């Protein structure tokens, strides 16, 4: 388990009256100046409340979207987050438009104890994404100690996620970061068995490192999504117009050989001549996809068999949809996995949804509160499961025994 200091390890003197510079992940969808999904904002509230209730002056940093080269594009402003945050906290929130000014530093010092301020989009600073030391120093001037609660950005070595953690001490994990590290760390180090991984999505290339890292650790890996077709081709059958990574077929063969019965492919799929012709869909066996047809979901038989394997598990991790879930009726396989995870959780299994499309799917199925943990970081959770070091985590203070 990755043992990092957290805000829970800070004594009262380290928090009371101090400026807590907190990196959060408020990279939320905004339409017509309104936040349309506040999930990530809500996820940060426990850490913010803990610090403010202990008398800290809380200064929040986050990015939003992908503005070009540090240009302050209004559509990427964090201003729409302010009213949402105020509503969730039940208090006013100060907005700091330009952190690179003496006025910004003065504002942070003048905040009352327990007050909260939100700094404008970190990516409006040209040096943010290059992990520029000067940019990190500019951010560091806004706080007395550093808290990283943005797991979703922890795989990026940016000025507000990595470099600043070396300048402000202590540099600790927030409650959300702590929860992410505990759940994901347990998957790789001390999972209750049987341990089952469900991996989906379009491309095997995006999951190859995860498969290789999980194979020695799991009892089964269930494969869904379009990447199943690449495995089918590796087994020597035709796949019609299904998405296949031709340059990864050899890799798929090697994985099948190394995995043995650990790697479980769909026994069949839901096919159609095109995504926009769902009325023509039908189910076929894995080796019977005709020319001119493509696989867009796993079939009913696979849904049942996969659900049975999940229900027999004690630990389950899920990353990637089973089909084109954003286009009903090709969402049936993904929804079946969401329900299987909820049912397994009710039976006592530890279930973790690895962010990204899987998180969107389980949220859409209104089952997010029925599983053990839904990760807030798609790319970060994927890299964690690949066994990679996350720069934003590595930079935090280690917990002493």
Tags for this entry?
six-stranded parallel beta sheet, Rossmann fold, elongated, 401 residues, alpha/beta
How would you sum up this structure, described in words?
This protein is α/β, with parallel strands linked by helices. It folds into two domains: 172 residues, Rossmann fold, CATH 3.40.50.1260; 195 residues, Phosphoglycerate kinase, N-terminal domain (Rossmann fold), CATH 3.40.50.1260. Helix content is 33%, strand content 16%. The protein contains 14 helices and 17 strands. The strands form four sheets. A six-stranded parallel β-sheet has the order 5-6-4-1-7-8, with helices on both faces. A six-stranded parallel β-sheet has the order 11-10-9-15-16-17, sandwiched between helices. The chain has a three-stranded antiparallel β-sheet with strand order 13-12-14. Strand 9, helix 7 and strand 10 form a beta-alpha-beta unit. Helix 2 packs across helix 3, helix 8 packs across helix 9 and helix 10 runs parallel beside helix 11. The longest helix is centred in the first third of the chain and has 15 residues. The protein is elongated and about 70 Å long. It starts with 11 loop residues before the first helix and ends in a 7-residue tail after the last helix. The mean pLDDT is 94.
Give me the number of helical elements.
14
Average predicted confidence as pLDDT: 94
User: What oligomeric assembly is this protein in?
Assistant: single chain
- Domains (count): 2
Number of strands: 17
Structural class: alpha/beta
CATH homologous superfamily identity of the largest domain: Phosphoglycerate kinase, N-terminal domain
Distance between the termini: 13 Å
Radius of gyration (CA) equals: 23 Å
Low-confidence stretches: none
CATH class identity of the largest domain: Alpha Beta
Please tell me what the overall shape is.
elongated
Q: In this structure, how is the largest beta sheet organized?
A: 6 strands, parallel
The CATH architecture category of the largest domain equals 3-Layer(aba) Sandwich
């Amino acid at each position: 388990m990755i043992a990092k200091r957290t805000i829970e390890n800070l004594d009262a003197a380290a928090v009371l009256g101090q400026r807590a510079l907190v990196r959060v992940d408020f990279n939320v969808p905004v339409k017509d100046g309104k936040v349309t999904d506040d999930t990530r904002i809500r996820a940060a509230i426990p850490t913010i409340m803990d610090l403010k209730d202990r008398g800290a002056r809380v200064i929040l940093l986050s990015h939003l979207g992908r503005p070009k080269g540090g240009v302050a594009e209004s559509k990427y402003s964090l201003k729409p987050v302010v009213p949402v945050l105020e509503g969730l906290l039940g208090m006013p929130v100060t907005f700091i438009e330009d952190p690179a000014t003496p006025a910004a530093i003065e504002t942070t010092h003048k905040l009352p104890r327990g007050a909260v301020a939100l700094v404008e989009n970190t990516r409006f600073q040209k040096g943010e994404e290059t992990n520029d030391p000067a940019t990190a120093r500019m951010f560091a001037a806004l706080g007395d100690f550093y808290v990283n609660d943005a797991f979703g950005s922890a795989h990026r070595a940016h000025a507000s996620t990595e470099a600043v953690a070396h300048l402000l001490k202590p540099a600790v994990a927030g409650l959300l970061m702590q929860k992410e590290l505990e759940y994901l760390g347990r998957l790789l180090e001390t999972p209750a068995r049987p341990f089952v991984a469900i991996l989906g999505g379009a491309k095997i290339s995006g999951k190859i490192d995860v498969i290789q890292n999980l194979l020695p650790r799991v009892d089964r890996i269930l494969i869904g999504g379009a990447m199943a077709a690449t495995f089918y081709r590796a087994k020597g059958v035709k796949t019609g117009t299904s998405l296949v990574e031709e340059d990864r077929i050899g890799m798929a063969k090697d994985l099948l050989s190394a995995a043995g019965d650990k790697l479980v492919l769909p026994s069949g799929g839901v096919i159609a001549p095109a995504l926009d012709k769902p009325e023509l869909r039908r189910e076929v066996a894995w080796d019977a996809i005709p020319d001119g047809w493509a696989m867009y979901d796993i079939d009913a038989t696979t849904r049942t068999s996969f659900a049975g394997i999940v229900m027999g598990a004690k630990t389950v991790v899920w990353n990637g949809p089973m089909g084109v879930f954003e286009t009903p009726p090709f969402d049936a396989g993904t929804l079946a996995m969401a329900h299987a995870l909820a049912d397994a959780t009710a039976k006592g299994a530890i279930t973790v949804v690895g962010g990204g499309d899987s998180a969107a799917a389980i949220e859409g199925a209104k089952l997010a509160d029925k599983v053990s943990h839904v990760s807030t970081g798609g790319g970060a959770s994927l890299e964690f499961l690949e066994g990679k070091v996350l720069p934003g985590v590595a930079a935090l203070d280690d917990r002493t025994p």
